[in-house]
Task: structure prediction
Amino acid sequence: MANDFIARRFIVTGKVQGVFFRASTAREAVRLGLRGHALNLPDGAVEVLAIGPVAGVAELQRWLHRGPPAARVEGVVEEVLEPADCADPASFRTG
Result:
């Protein structure tokens, strides 16, 4: 990975399951050249792992605060990770 790559884990809460949040996040992440995942959590939140250029991760973070039209985002918590500590996914996946 390039030195200017960063990794962030976001937990997005609100009405974010059953509203195409993961698929929309993946589409946005791919557009921004990011790798990682968007996963539903048992508590109704969505976990987003974003790995890539600083500007792309920052833009995805801003997007996560609103999400797709049917979503109602109540909160986004960010965790700073080291890219070297993350599994290096080849793309962005949902699950």
User: Anything to note?
Assistant: DSSP finds two helices and five strands in the chain. The domain at 5-83 is CATH 3.30.70.100 (Alpha-Beta Plaits).
